[in-house]
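Dear Dr. V.,

Thank you for agreeing to look over these. As mentioned in my earlier message, I'm a first-year student in the group and I'm still getting used to reading structure tokens, so any feedback on how I've presented them would be very welcome. I ran two proteins. I've put each sequence directly above its structure. The first is here:
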Amino acid sequence: ARKQQVYTALYRWRPDGQWDQVAKPCAVDPKEWLSQITHPCLFVGDGSAVYKSLIEDTVGPLARFAPPYLNTPRPSVVAHVGFEQIQRGDTCDVALLVPNYIRKSDAETKLESGKLGPSLGDPKA
């Protein structure tokens, strides 16, 4: 996520093979996030490799790590998850799909704070 933050979310695995969302996706300081872990937790993704020492130091024996080859999103996994959703009848109109941005872009933040400067074509510029 840069800015000394990581993108994260927290899910609980159910015996039926499904996942329940425990904490919504967010961009947070890793130290702050890790201090909230109180149960065994599987860390997955490139941030788990970058912050492995911090995770181990903070979470201790509660930390589990996915093998490195599982830390990169794969189209085959997305296809598998989608196939399972279709089998359950959990479908939607693809025209309604939208990206889920966790935080505003730097450009949006600068524009809102007035630090981006005048735009081209701005009659006041």
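The second protein is here, in the same arrangement:
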Amino acid sequence: MQESVNLFEFLRCPGIPDSDVIDKFDTVVVYNDRKEIVKILVADTGNGRFAFGYDIFFLNGRQAKRLPSLENGYCTTANNAVLYFLGYIKKYASRFSDNVIREVNRLIGQYSQPTLF
């Protein structure tokens, strides 16, 4: 089964090779039912660069974790970093439960809405 594309790829700027990981970050909990946990890690690196990472516990018991780093690319706002990674999750939707994907879709709507103030 071929995966789809990340509709928010355009929000990601190219990575900076050999960048260090960033250990101070905000956490956005996408989903947590204690069996499956999906978190997006977003770090403000200054100069309008927001690095992203993830901490995921899959239903099968496996974990995937990557601390934020500019090496994997960055976004110009924290909101864009979250949207980019939500799109990344949707790209690999078959690896997640339907509940996670429903929550991802809800969050995409929430993060896509422009604020008036």
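From my reading of the second output: The longest strand covers residues 37-46. DSSP finds two helices and four strands in the chain. Does that match how you would interpret it?

Kind regards,
E.
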